[in-house]
Amino acid sequence: MKAVGFYRFLPLSDPQSLLDLELPTPVPAGTDILVRIKAISVNPADLMVRSRGNDGDAPKVLGWDAAGIVEQVGPDCTIFQPGDEVYYAGDLNRPGSNSEFQLVDERIVGRKPKSVDFAQAAAMPLTSLTAWEGLYERMGVSHDKRENENKTILIIGAAGGVGSIATQLAKNAGLTVIGTSSRTQSSEWVKANGADFIINHKLAFAPQLKELGIETVDMIFCLNHTAGHWDNMAEVIRPQGKICSVVPVNEPINLDVLLYKSVSFHWEFMFTRSLFQSKDMLEQHRILTAVGDKIDAKQVKTTLTQRLTPIDAANLRVAHEKIQAGDMIGKLVVEGF
Q: Which part of the chain is the Enoyl reductase (ER) domain (predicted)?
């Protein structure tokens, strides 16, 4: 099968940084399904894993967002059958989706929404799982809109992949959504996704919120530079509020600033379930199915903003460079071998 991978970490300007490869097609066992990949999305996770290099002799295949068609199923599968159209974010412990075929545990796979194409679906899994888990599981947002009335959430980095979905889900849940953005184009995107208000994350939060008549917020979803926004977050979170972040700190921060407000801080890492083979792995299948239903019901829209064709090393180097630049709006998808 065709695949794109690398043997060692090199700058993206080096043609050897990502290579077109021919690899054996894997065979499913247990609860694995073999998926014929139709489209993939590129995420910061791809860059993170690539930067760690390759500790083996075999090529490393990246990719943690995909949509495709089930080709074969393992003997213990009960959810999917050959021919089913699926989408998923995969598992950091296993070869990624930058290949013609991929093995993935069916418990972390969802049925592709019927109303979108494969590229539009491939833009959604990782960001949707991260946003859903962050909102509903970490910060305890209710699925009952009545319980969310008059509650506010500040989404830092609302124009990015996760922010684009989190904004839609939060608004759909009945929350008042304040998104952050620093550019006109990204602000327009955030507003289009349903944000009630927009503030600039490069400026102090409190004065901007006060101009909107908001003293404190009930929740903060931090999707950009946790340490850099720490003091701003501590200042505007309400007493007994909740903060959730997806961005590693990598430097000392003063957790005590949350003490007197009894604020809870949560980490969200979408790969936790598959990484530790937790007993509730099936929950990711349920989440992706629920998101798919919302897409088909026009309650959530795909965040695809850029397409590249075909899936090969040259296009993936371009995609990685775009993600590395750090100013992406929405999601970039590469489709077709």
A: 16-334
Q: How far apart, in whole angstroms, are the C-alpha atoms of residue 14 and residue 9?
A: 10
From 235, 267, 299, the end of a domain falls on 267
150 and 249 co-located in one domain: yes
**pLDDT tens per residue, the chain (337 residues)?**
999 999 999 999 999 999 999 999 999 999 999 999 999 999 988 998 999 898 888 999 999 999 999 999 999 999 999 999 999 999 999 999 999 999 999 999 999 999 999 999 999 999 999 999 999 999 999 999 999 999 999 999 999 999 999 999 999 999 999 999 988 999 999 999 999 999 999 999 999 999 999 999 999 999 999 999 999 999 999 999 999 999 999 889 999 999 999 999 999 999 999 999 999 999 999 999 999 999 999 999 999 999 999 999 999 999 999 999 888 888 999 999 9
Backbone φ/ψ region at 327: left (φ over 0), alpha (ψ -120 to 50), beta: alpha
Q: Same structural domain for residues 63 and 91? A: yes
Q: Which amino acid belongs to residue 27?
A: V
Residues comprising the chain, all counted = 337
Q: Which long-range contacts (CB under 8 A, 24 or more apart) does 45-54 make?
A: 45/92, 45/126, 45/271, 46/96, 46/320, 46/323, 47/320, 47/323, 47/324, 49/92, 50/6, 50/9, 50/17, 50/320, 51/9, 52/9, 53/8, 53/9, 54/6, 54/7, 54/8, 54/9
Is residue 79 domain-shared with residue 16, that is, in the same domain? yes
Q: How many domains does the chain have?
A: 2
CATH number at residue 221: 3.40.50.720
Nearest to 223 by CA among 150, 157, 142: 157
